[in-house]
């Protein structure tokens, strides 16, 4: 039985990857942080009572800022594969917490690599490092491939740049099987609520249900290459199954503006939006309603009105330095890994909208009954 250790197992990718590896017959160990509230929502369905026989999923308390803890967990678990997914992963928040981000996302990766080396596991343990398209930052060339120069534009991206190079260095210096997956944005119904796609899908559903009047966003012109997390975690695994350790770009090869993602999301609810104005004065207004579709979704078309402004720009979401355009070239991963995504953008939006409509209807039901509803900060 192969043994995998996932850092960041409670996050979007960690949850999908744990499920994927368990299905493949792995024993999966996950590192979770101690928190005053439960933080295992995304993996609760995988929970196993540790007193039962045949346990193959186990959680350990840990943190990437604590080397002794990492050394102990790796010594105890003796993993064949480590997936380093833990990170302070929010680009805008990294401007508020640059030092912590450098510590967790940059030095954290070093701690992990060093732990494997200290324990003499260089020949046994393969390491996947969650690198990112944010490394490309200020556009040098498009589409962006494994050979495109980096120009990071946030404390997050700079920390991830250190992690990228220290992974390459440990591979070259100590002959370790350590690889970077340079993953472009990937989303899902499990995406954190403050990333733009999830904020949009939740916001659109809340507006359609009358739970929210307006969705406030930042830069609507930013372009991202969005894929589905379910497809991307499969690529992570494929990267560690190769003969040789190498770095790979994982992307769809299609880029879309935030504005168009908003339109596609509202369209799923039968709401047609038009945008007008510029920069912080831009707004999205309802210009069409598909009453039949709206009703078929269990929504009340009489609560929605043509001419209503439902999207506005709030400059507080602008970043001090922005990444304007990301568009990946997945040629290498398609040819060498045989990786082929199953979801295109339309299928991704449909999946997220379906899930959020269900969740927000639950929220509305609770609200009607005067029960406490979901409350996420943006
Ligand atoms: P999430 O933010 O959903 O999950 C991050 C995980 O890391 C959570 O489990 C979080 O724990 C954990 N974590 C945060 N800080 C620490 C720490 N100091 N020690 C231990 N664990 C910590 O991210 P995603 O699942 O979306 O992304 C996974 C990885 O891939 C991240 O490294 C991210 O930077 C990178 N990435 C993501 C992309 C994307 O589009 N999703 C694209 C490219 C790279 P908790 O639940 O307690 O907060
Ligand atoms: P990103 O994702 O920064 O690309 O990092 P995010 O969804 O936060 O932003 C994407 C783009 O949308 C613009 N934007 C907004 N963003 C947020 N969060 N909230 C808003 O209201 C809003 N309005 C517009 C942003 O300016 C940006 O241009 C994600 C993370 O998962 C990283 O960890 C990962 O490395 C990269 O993707 C690839």
From TrEMBL:
Coiled coil: none annotated. NCBIfam families: gmd. Catalyzes the conversion of GDP-D-mannose to GDP-4-dehydro-6-deoxy-D-mannose. It comes from the Bacteria. The keyword Lyase applies. Its cofactor is NADP(+). This is GDP-mannose 4,6-dehydratase. Residues 5-352 form the NAD(P)-binding domain. Belongs to the NAD(P)-dependent epimerase/dehydratase family. GDP-mannose 4,6-dehydratase subfamily. It comes from Pedobacter chinensis. It is an enzyme of class 4 (lyase). One of its GO terms (molecular function) is NADP+ binding. CDD domains: GDP_MD_SDR_e. It catalyses: GDP-alpha-D-mannose = GDP-4-dehydro-alpha-D-rhamnose + H2O. One of its GO terms (biological process) is 'de novo' GDP-L-fucose biosynthetic process. InterPro entries: GDP_Man_deHydtase (IPR006368), NAD(P)-bd_dom (IPR016040), NAD(P)-bd_dom_sf (IPR036291). The keyword NADP applies. Its EC number is 4.2.1.47. Keywords: Lyase, NADP.
